[in-house]
Write a structure and sequence with these properties.
Number of helices of chain B: 12
Number of strands of chain A: 0
Order of helices and strands of chain B: HHHHHHHHHHHH
Radius of gyration of chain B: 22 Å
Oligomer: heterodimer
Number of domains of chain B: 2
Number of strands of chain B: 0
Structural class of chain A: mainly alpha
Radius of gyration of chain A: 25 Å
Number of domains of chain A: 2
Order of helices and strands of chain A: HHHHHHHHHHHHH
Largest interface: A-B, 70 and 61 residues
Number of helices of chain A: 13
Largest sheet of chain B: none
Structural class of chain B: mainly alpha
Chain lengths: ~280, ~210
């Protein structure tokens, strides 16, 4: 009986999901049609009216997705100056968010003032370069549908490259953990006095790291999570950001509870040194 | 991540962002459970999004004035993408940065060059004496990064005597200069086959 109830809930959820998907698909089709209509209604390419429309602000502002098509059209026409002019509009319109982003990225690293100035320029130039290359590549169609989201992806890409290149962020290889005998794993659930020597110390450290991680401001968690290897990132995100239990996390990821615990332990091990200030605060 | 995969992840995460912008608090677990093929990429984007993107300012109604510093950065980016004739001698300031614009990751570039990531990082940081780098590696770097060999040589300070001297001075100050041969012998990440192959190239080039 319980099982049947469960099945019925799942079927209802799936139905709701498929209705939602259908709605979303039709919204997407509408949006595509609307963007195409705006693009098709543009004045003749290169005319004064054309540039006036592209450079307009306020109510008549063009969606950035339409400007992407304009860049690509200029390239098709071999019009280098036209291409540059559309790019200038795009850079101007994305300037505020890009500047804010570059400053936020640099705030995460300790820098001297002169170093900050140079790196800010480098970071901004890297982002502009990536944007140019992406917009000039007509196979990257999603830019014509959702500019801001593609820009977020590009910024993420530049962020990662920057952190790795500047040596701020060495990519930590995911350790292949040896399988731990179930008996030993179970013993971790028992009181601390049952453990001995080094194991004792590691257990305490991880507990501290775990408490410190729980004490971290919720909004600061993603930055910490970002520096973890992918496999560990997912587990920490689900447990500490979303508040899932280890069991639920295992269910979502299709892995065993034991794997979740191993990954969590590895993640806490990596995060331990980053959490020193929180730990000090926690035990004051 | 290949282009097709990237676009799939973009479409999925776009929905997540849409929900956040609409004031909801979407469950990441729903997305991960629904798209098990992309869990790592989705989680990575979500963490990044909440760390750096969620509070970005909306587009301003008036046209912002771009500061001189950022205008110069845009010009520098133009120069990298479409070099003008006045600056026909292209330069690159980073091997990894150039690779990244070609959507090549660190390990992918290392793979293309048949070197290990630790050696690649040393090359990136100019921690290897430029005069000991084999021509074969310069050639492979030029091919992988789609740059003329002169550009790669210039990166290592090989094109002008003065630059080489400057580079050497930096090495001496850092006290970390080592030869390419020492780097390959020392690397724990290089396979034995790769090591043998580089030894033979170095012998051929009498380095």
């Amino acid at each position: 009986m319980l099982c049947l109830e469960k099945v019925s809930v799942i079927v209802k959820q799936e139905l709701a999901q498929s209705v939602e998907d259908h709605d979303r698909d039709s919204e997407l089709v509408k949006r595509r049609a609307s963007l195409a209509a705006i693009y098709d209604a543009l004045p003749a390419y290169g005319s004064t009216a054309y540039w006036k429309t592209l450079e307009a602000r306020g109510d008549t502002i063009l969606p950035l997705e339409v400007l992407v098509r304009c860049v690509r059209h200029a390239i098709k026409c071999g019009d280098d100056l036209g291409r540059k002019r559309v790019f200038e509009v795009i850079f101007c319109r994305t300037y505020n968010s890009n500047e804010y982003w570059a400053n936020s990225v640099l705030k995460t690293v300790n820098l001297q003032a002169d170093e900050q100035y140079t790196l800010l320029s480098d970071l901004f130039a890297d982002l502009c370069e990536c944007m140019m290359r992406a917009l000039m590549d007509s196979s990257r169609l999603f830019w014509e549908e959702n500019f801001q989201h593609c820009l977020s992806f590009e910024r993420r890409h530049v962020f990662r490259t920057f952190m790795t290149r500047e040596g701020r962020w060495t990519k930590q290889p995911l350790k292949k953990t040896a399988r731990i005998p179930r008996a030993l794993l179970d013993s971790l659930d028992h009181p601390v006095q049952q453990l001995e020597g080094d194991v004792h110390e590691i257990r305490i450290e991880d507990e501290m790291a775990q408490k410190a991680l729980l004490a971290v401001e919720h909004s600061d968690l993603p930055r910490l999570i970002l520096s973890l290897p992918d496999k560990l990132k997912t587990v920490v995100l689900l447990i500490f950001w979303e508040g899932k239990t280890e069991k639920d996390t295992a269910l979502v990821l299709g892995i065993t509870d034991r794997t979740v615990r191993n990954r969590l332990r590895d993640a806490l091990e990596i995060l331990r040194h980053k959490l020193e200030p929180e730990r000090e605060w926690l035990y004051e | 991540m290949n282009r097709e995969r990237e676009e799939a992840v973009q479409r999925i995460t776009a929905r997540y962002v849409e929900e956040v912008r609409a004031g909801h608090r979407p469950n990441i677990s729903d997305y991960l459970a629904r798209y098990p093929l992309y869990t790592d990429e989705i989680a990575d984007f979500v963490a990044y999004y909440h760390a750096f993107e969620v509070n970005l300012p909306e587009e301003a109604q008036s046209m912002p004035v771009i500061s001189g510093q950022f205008q110069a950065a845009i010009e520098a980016a133009w120069e990298r993408v479409v070099p003008t004739r006045a600056h026909s001698t292209r330069t690159i300031t980073s091997l990894l940065g150039t690779a990244s614009t070609l959507q090549l990751g660190v390990s992918q570039l290392a793979g293309k060059l048949a070197v290990s990531v630790d050696i690649l990082m040393k090359l990136e940081r100019h921690a290897i004496d430029a005069t000991t780098i084999p021509g074969e590696l310069i050639k492979q770097l030029a091919e992988a990064l789609q740059q003329p060999t002169q550009v790669i040589q210039a990166f290592f300070g090989m094109s002008q005597g003065r630059q080489v001297a400057e580079t050497q001075a930096v090495y001496l100050l850092d006290g970390q200069a080592q030869s390419f041969r020492e780097a390959i012998e020392e690397s724990a990440q290089l396979s034995e086959e790769q090591r043998r192959s580089w030894r033979s190239i170095l012998d051929q080039e009498k380095l």
